[in-house]
Amino acid sequence: MEGAEAEEQEWAAVARDLLALGYEGCPGAASPGTSCPDFRALCARLAAELATLGALEREREEGTEALSAGDGPGAEEEFLRQLAGLLRELHCPDRELCGGDCAASLREPDARLRLLRFLCSEVQAAHLLRLRSRLDPNPEPSCGEGAEEGSGMVQELILTLQALGLPKPTRGTPACQLLQDLHAKISELLPSLPPESLQPLLSLPLDTPRWEALASLSQSLRDQYGCRRCLLLKRLDLTTSAFHWSDRAEAQGEAMKAVLIPIREALTSESDVSIAHVLAARADLSRLVPATSKTARRRTCCAVNKVLMGSVPDRGGRPNELEAPMPSWQSRREDGGGRKAGHQCWGRKKKKK
């Protein structure tokens, strides 16, 4: 009973989405599926709206219908053939719908529900993109030479292109074309990597509670390391300011500021590590190398490490070697100049040699 109620609620949600888009008369779970002309007509109307909104490139090029509802002996087969091409063009993530036997999958009410839900979500997304294009005169960002060099996204793309050995894109290159080139180059280089070299560090699936826990942990670590970075930056400021106290710094003060200020302005207390870095991390990142290992010392070893300190004088200061002061007793003098007999006088006892 609970499964049936949940399925009815999902169909009701799809019906509300269709009603919000201006469609009435959702076929429901009891419809026979692709053999029903009403179901095919509804899918064809959704596909036609996607083509009108510019979400289907094939529709603009060929000028043909994305889906034809039809009505005849071969209408269902033609509909299924066109539906398979439509789902591939929209990059549908549902493997059952995009599989070989789409007709068998759509006989199940759950598969028809997923199909309608996917088409509704694509229409809603197309409406949002159309609204964004009206508000933004340049909806398609370019990543060529005219893009801002200082933006973080462009810098990441430039580093990615350099790592893959790709040339810098020309002015006006659309982002979609650049991403396609990146995908083709990465697909070409993947077979040359050793097996299991791209195993993710985080291999467990993340549901909603785990996402919330991961976000909370990330924010807590960002706050903690933000405080640490503030402390280190304050120490850096005090250390650099101490160099200006010397007499020599009076003549070299401007030159020192010209070198230090650009470096200091680039250092912020906010960390740029986010959850995206955790998801992109690979398993080899957890391979910890000791700082004193031979591999690490090849890069950190310098001439200063080879200087040995000689013998230094013992400055003491160890609390366990200090003795507490003991009181000393003095007798009363006859001339009255001394203290009263039995008066306690605190004195420092000489340290034993």
From TrEMBL:
Species, as recorded: Moschus moschiferus (Siberian musk deer)
Basic residues compositional bias, start-end: 340-353
Matching InterPro entries: FAM98
GO cellular component, one term: tRNA-splicing ligase complex
Family: Belongs to the FAM98 family.
Pfam families in alphabetical order: DUF2465
UniProt-annotated stretches for the region Disordered: 312-353
Designated name of the protein: Family with sequence similarity 98 member C
Coiled coil: none
